[in-house]
Amino acid sequence: MENSAKQFRKRNAILACLRQSEAHPSAEELYHSLQKEHSDISLASVYRNLKLFKEEGLIVSLGTVNGVERLDGRLDPHVHFACTCCGAVMDVPDVEVPKSVSCAAAQSLECRVESTRLVLTGICKNCL
Question: Where exactly are the structural domains of the chain?
Fold first, then answer.
């Protein structure tokens, strides 16, 4: 019983850490953040739980930025900006995902679009 309780505690900690982060962290970044309070957590455990969360629809992958998969705990439609120089990923406030994009894709491909994620890429103000 203690083992499953410990596993559940780690799983909750991983999900909470991701949902509280605005940096859209990688698995490794989550692991390092979690180690401060959960010294017994392993990188393999983080990866395993992130895979499970993605399969269950609790988190989303934003794809790779500078060769590293970035994750998001926010599930509502929103726009991201990814810096191709430093790799920072941030939410773009006050900009909505245009519904016309999903509608045009659905019409063009004769499909049903179930979710839309928009990631803009470029160079952030810090790297300019």
Answer: 1-74, 76-128
